Amino acid sequence: MEAEVAEPAIKQLKKLKKVVVAYSGGADSTLVTYLCKMTGIDYVAVTVNSEVLSRDELENAIRVAEILNLNHEVINVSLLDVPEFVRNDQKRCYHCKKTILTAIKSTFNGRTIVDGSNADDMNENRPGRKALQEFGVISPLKHLTKNEIRTISNELSLPTWNRPSNSCLATRVNGEEISEEKLRKIEEAENVLRNFGFKLIRVRTRGDNATVQVARNRVQDLMRIKKEISARIKKLGFQHVLFDPEGYPSEEIK
Fold first, then answer.
1. Cα angle: 90, vertex 135, 53; to 5 degrees
2. Which of 13, 41, 237, 244 minimizes the number of CB atoms within 10 Å of its CB?
3. Positive or negative torsion for Cα 250, 198, 60, 147
């Protein structure tokens, strides 16, 4: 492993006695959880299941935890019971994180909360970071870039080393309140794309309109079958389906 790169994270974890890792099953949180296991500290990885977590993401988190034999638990939280979140304004992410962290803290009282925030995250404007600071969340990977995390994960043979980054389903809802119906339609629409073999997927909605995004290097593949995909997504209740010709601007993962 790139010892000199990961050593600061390992040293920081060793100083903590009891931790709870906010674990999603993605590349970042899986690496920090695995490092907890490697160092031998008292840890538990917790996945917060809510309306904004897709079934695919939940099942992946459980599957990866089983493969790596992680100490893993799932707790349930209802974000749709939080009016400030449902309102879907600029503070939505903050209220989401605050609700989730409150649930983690109350369930695992006495443990330091650890997450997988990385150096790239620190360079972005993320409203949810305020909640992380308020709850004293420790981010051992904050000095590592996403690419470094993927490299280390690959060297450790972690199955998440090349898993595309994802965000909660609420990020897909634009300019309107969030509801259970909207979230489930988005999830089903993204499952349509997943069934065609796409991995990096975003279906963004406004009213009855859906805009489909895939990785930039898969845009041509998407365009070849867009009529079939459009027809299937319209069956879910969308009136218009648009396709982003530029593709998702983050990672070149198929």
1. 55
2. 237
3. negative
Q: What residue ranges define each of the domains in the chain, with the CATH number in brackets?
A: 3-155 (3.40.50.620), 169-243 (3.30.300)
Q: Which long-range contacts (CB under 8 A, 24 or more apart) does 76-81 make?
A: 76/48, 76/49, 76/50, 77/48, 77/49, 77/50, 77/103, 78/50, 78/51, 79/50, 79/51, 79/52, 79/170, 80/51, 80/178, 80/179, 80/180
Tokens of 71: 């100490």
pLDDT at residue 254 greater than cutoff 50: no
Whether 94 shows a pLDDT value over 70: the answer reads yes
Q: Round the CA-based radius of gyration of the chain to a whole number and report it.
A: 18
CB 64 within 8 A of CB 37: no
Spatial separation of the C-alpha atoms in residues 22 and 30, rounded to whole Å: 10
Nearest to 88 by CA among 18, 209, 169, 29: 169
Work out the pLDDT band at 6, boundaries 50, 70, 90.
confident
**pLDDT at residue 126, rounded to an integer:** 73
Task: Compute the half-sphere exposure of residue 116: CA atoms within 13 Å on the CB side of its CA.
Answer: 25
For the entire predicted model, the pTM comes to 0.92
Whether 39 and 64 have beta carbons less than 8 Å apart is answered as: no
**Distance separating alpha carbons of residues 160 and 156, to the nearest angstrom:** 10
- Give me the pLDDT at residue 123, please: 72
> Can you tell me the distance from the alpha carbon of 169 to that of 229, in angstroms, rounded to the nearest whole number?
20
Phi-psi region of 121 (alpha: psi -120 to 50; beta: other; left: phi over 0): alpha
pLDDT single digits (tens) 139-154: 999 999 999 999 999 9
Q: Label residue 121 by pLDDT band (50, 70, 90).
A: confident
User: Mean pLDDT over residues 152-166, rounded?
Assistant: 94
Say how far apart CA 13 and CA 40 lie, in whole Å.
10
